[in-house]
TrEMBL record:
Subunit structure, as described in the record: Homotetramer.
Gene: dapB
Function: Catalyzes the conversion of 4-hydroxy-tetrahydrodipicolinate (HTPA) to tetrahydrodipicolinate.
Residue ranges constituting the Dihydrodipicolinate reductase N-terminal domain according to the UniProt record: 3-125
Binding site for NADP(+): 36
Protein's name according to its UniProt entry: 4-hydroxy-tetrahydrodipicolinate reductase
Main location: cytoplasm
Length: 262
């Protein structure tokens, strides 16, 4: 049995992940954490009736022996400290939270290596998104002109999405930096061309009703290719999270990308 703690359990993803852990035959939910929690046990919430695991509202109250795995779906401003805490306390992090800087990820990787703790940061736990990123990387070898459009619900804090940034990074591995569009182009309204990652433009859409969606558009002489993925429901991320929880302790480093453990 993997003993699991869920950070951010009051949020959209943390709630879904808590249910997944409770329902999984090989996992045991041993605690949940969220700074705005006021209850003592999870079972005080009607939807978790009978699940009397402790609720933590301060990270310092979580003992190092509590859990094997720390699932983190929190916020861009808290994820670094949370994951650092988990690694320092011998708990393997499975991190879905986006918005960390490259420097923060590097530091956590160093720490995990020093402590020989296995962990995973996955910008996206959905298989459709993992495949989209791989297909896009493959296509970019032949179509170096590319723009990314990511579309999310309007409560999302970070832009561009972690998936869009990761897509751009994977494409940049196979594509020389390239300025796209007319060299003389001028934005008459600031931001019209979106963010710019090594010449690739990334556009972020935020709309109610959306969950998580991404399109990668390739254009060439007389032809175009569009790759698209849609996550219509947060349950779509859960099989990826479950694989990560099951396997993460087999490693002794902090990996980035679900594809590394599939
Ligand atoms: N990798 C993937 O496949 C996916 C990743 N995500 C990412 O997961 C993250 C969470 O998304 P979502 O669930 O929609 O966001 P929510 O805002 O719904 O949930 C985040 C929760 O974390 C809480 N929180 C804030 N600070 C801390 C902290 N220090 N410790 C523990 N909990 C904390 C928030 O509380 P409060 O509201 O009071 O701040 C909130 O309850 C985002 O970064 C999102 O991009 C989302 C979907 C899939
Ligand atoms: O905030 C979200 O919802 C999502 N965040 C992740 C991201 O930033 O890429 C993954 C997915 O797109 C959903």
């Amino acid at each position: 049995m993997k003993k699991v703690i869920v950070a951010g359990f009051k949020g959209r993803m943390g709630n879904t992940a808590s249910h997944m852990v409770i329902d999984h035959k090989d996992f045991e939910l041993v605690g949940v954490f969220d700074p705005r929690a006021t209850e003592k046990t999870l079972g005080e919430n009607l939807e978790f009736k009978g699940i009397d695991v402790p609720v933590y509202s301060k990270v310092a109250d979580i003992a190092s022996s509590t859990a094997d795995v720390w699932i983190d779906f929190t916020s861009p401003t808290s994820v670094y400290e949370n994951v650092k805490f988990a690694i320092e306390n011998g708990i393997s992090p499975v991190v879905g939270t986006t918005g960390m800087t490259d420097e923060q990820v590097n530091e956590l990787q160093k720490l995990a290596k020093a402590k020989k703790i296995g962990g995973l940061i996955a910008p996206n736990f959905g298989i459709s998104a993992v495949l989209l990123m791989q297909f896009a990387q493959q296509a970019a070898k032949y179509f170096p002109n590319v723009e990314i459009i990511e579309m999310h619900h309007d409560n999302k804090l970070d832009a561009p999405s972690g998936t869009a940034i990761n897509t751009a990074k994977l494409i940049a591995e196979v594509r020389a930096p390239k300025q796209q569009g007319n060299p003389q182009e001028k934005e008459t309204l600031a931001g019209a061309r979106g963010a710019n990652y090594e010449g690739m433009h990334i556009h972020s859409v935020r709309l109610p009703g959306y969950v998580a969606h991404e399109q990668v558009l390739f254009g060439s002489e007389g032809e175009a290719l569009t790759i698209r993925q849609d996550s219509f429901d947060r349950s779509s991320f859960m099989s990826g999270v479950a694989v990560a929880v099951a396997k993460v302790q087999d490693y002794d480093e902090l990996l980035v990308g679900l594809e590394h453990i599939l």
